Amino acid sequence: MASSFPSFEKTIQFLWLCFFISNLLDLAHADPPYSVCSNNSNYSANSTFQNNLEILMSSIRSNASVSKLYYTSTGNDLDRIYAQYMCINYITHDSCSTCITAASQDIMQVCPGDKEAVVWEELCQLRYSNQSFLGHLDVSGNIAKDNQKDVENPEQFGLVVNETLSDLTKQVAFNASANMYATRQAAFTNTETLYALMQCSTDLSPDDCNTCLRVAMENISSCCDASRGGRVLSRSCYLRYELYAFYEGANESSKSPVPGKSSRRKTWIIIILTAAAAVLVVRDGLNDGESAFMDLESIYAATGNFSDSNLLGQGGFGPVYKVNEIHLLDFQARKMSDGKEVAVKRLSAWSDQGTDEFTNEVMLIMKLQHKNLVKLLGLCVDGDEKLLVYEFMPNRSLDVFLFDKKERARLNWRTRTGIVNGIAKGTLYLHEDSRHRIIHRDLKASNVLLDKDMNPKISDFGMARMFAGSEGEANTARIVGTYGYMAPEYAMEGLYSTKSDVFSFGVLLLEIITGNKNSEFNKSKRAPSLLAYAWQLWNEGKELELIDPLMADSCCSDEFSRYMHVGLLCVQEDPCERPTMSSVVLMLKRESSILTHPHRPAFSVGRFADYEANAGNCSVNALTISSISPVDCTLWGWVISMFFSW
Fold this sequence. Notes:
Killer Toxin P4, Chain A, 17 helices, five-stranded antiparallel sheet
């Protein structure tokens, strides 16, 4: 009698098939695309809105091969659409293009007829809306997913995850050189490693990025406590962690440093940096009491061991503290002037890039002397601590006044023009009057400090670049700076020059005289940015409509029109058409100056233009970076090579 049971071989095949189908079901449950569709507002088939949306999707697909972040808009009035995509930073441009192409197809299929939608693929996000969202935090509708597999010892794993994500959040949000993206690894067991990745949309402020990631961490804790991995998909940020290397380069560039090697590397960079700084101080004659080495114990005592009660704020470099200078001693234990308050910038402990910024800032600021640049009083490099001591600015930074209605009322027209002219003169010094040509690369309201008399001083030179002689242009693959102030050719192509600083200055000028923030501007949906709206009103002869009502009584209309005209010249899309800072200073000062007609400004950072066609008409030379004298080059080249090869 034949057996009714299947053969052993068929049984094994059946079990493998069940296992395979089970995994497929898990993947179908866990893998993208994910979407959030809005049913609040719909468009009709064959409408102008649908036509604009199709044009927008085509534009997005064509740009995905050249940029991993893109923001754009099209249409007018009720049919205007805003769109943005963001690819995970580690992927290639080709992979980004493939992902966005898929997303542009999926978003039309899963949210048909919706005027607002967002879709997440494995490696990218795409969203569109009939409302402008550039620079606005949005954590509504966050999607949290686990990877369907439980972890052993979830309590210990939860502690490792929370600590790692907390540190990573600080790095992504507040380390400007990270460009709002970072990865990290941490040991979980002897055989397992946690891999984590975070990314914010770079149009967010650091505080909004921090908020977005903190909310994402809360989402993780409620969905994925016992899981071996999880991810949170937000409109404004992205978080993921796993117990396997899910991102490219995880085993090399993101590996947690080996304690012994890290310690030796830090020791050597500290020794070399201190020695090199000493050479620069002595050679340049800056050891005359105006700049000195500080004692770490004195700084600890003065800041209350970096107590939060002395914390002024958080910059891209790290936290900034206020102390009384009477507590600070220089390298020879000599007291500095009594009773004077100073600011101490402390390098973020979690930042690898911060060491480069620290070195860069020391190199630059020691060479600069101008009344509209913040003054370096001293530095301290001791163990893991790296600190810079600056003069204290009692009125904090310009953004504190400019973007708060109550504080802005204190800025009358004369005060504002004084601030504008001071920033212009400080930038002119960097570009043309200092020993070397310097491009700041991050001119913005929060990097302009105000003294007790509201005189402006440009600060934060961690991102700045220095050129020799007549050089003044370079290209970089690592974009740093702040969207809303960033020149389009720099944001999209990595090309920076003195003209990119001029663009940032123009944005700042328009913000100061109007009281509006460019990255958050949407004037009754008539224009996507302050630049666009200012240009529109200027062409219609209605520029006085942009006068800040809080200073209307003190404002001279003719002078306002001239300042607005200069601002529009600075933010023209073609960098060759922007004036130099020397021309800007003259145009602001001379009422009789004849100003040229400004061309169309860059309405957003989401565009890609071909500047090579205009290269022959531009006075900026094509250059390589050669920033300092041969003695400096040899010394700092050795510093950097030792640091990265140790």
